[in-house]
Amino acid sequence: xxxxxxxxxxxxxxxxxxxxxxxxxxxxxxxxxxxxxxxxxxxxxxxxxxxxxxxxxxxxxxxxxxxxxxxxxxxxxxxxxxxxxxxxxxxxxxxxxxxxxxxxxxxxxxxxxxxxxxxxxxxxxxxxxxxxxxxxxxxxxxxxxxxxxxxxxxxxxxxxxxxxxxxxxxxxxxxxxxxxxxxxxxxxxxxxxxxxxxxxxxxxxxxxxxxxxxxxxxxxxxxxxxxxxxxxxxxxxxxxxxxxxxxxxxxxxxxxxxxxxxxxxxx
Length: 267
Description:
Helices cover 62% and strands 4% of the residues. It has helices at residues 23-39, 52-59, 63-75, 100-109, 113-137, 140-154, 161-177, 181-185, 187-203, 211-223, 227-251; strands spanning 48-49, 79-82, 86-89. Helix 1 (23-39) packs across helix 4, helix 5 (113-137) runs antiparallel to helix 11 and helix 10 packs antiparallel against helix 11.
């Protein structure tokens, strides 16, 4: 016998204020707040979302905005709609956990240490081998892209949004240099993981002592076409980043500043 499904009460949501004509931001705000409530455990897998008439009446939003918000969550595997049973929250195993928006919602809700470690485990699986492939397959254009990113990082040592963006560009350029199309699909998810974990470390001053040096070692190994050295350098970089993230968690809560609009989390 199936467990009795609970119907979500939308009045617990705190929708971000938006202009009356800004429909795109409104449905993004609804999707964001529903997602953070789901990720944070306020709403559970199996819970049923209210139909659009009930939701729109309780929160004074249009049915169209609510419908579009549900489509966003459905595309990320977090809800599913079925005839007669309505829209329900899916099991976590079905969520697209490396989608940049889903990652952003996790970091706003406060990710568990287990989830953070899983993200770093993914990076340890993917990035060292990608660095080894990049050492074999890189072009001069790839090296130039990585070098430009390093130069931008050096200006602020990962202490500003500009240098963080440069860090993401470095990792993106490295994955692109591996010349593996399926691998590049992971680039946005890995980039989002780097972005949010770096922000956690920045908030409590737990950055590695020399993040630029770690990145430069990867660059030099790739430039020298030394695959084993590039693999080892990238593994060391990821492991140090994980250690610094754990240090940040011990110092304070693993949370980032709220991002109220799903569209704003895309980079």
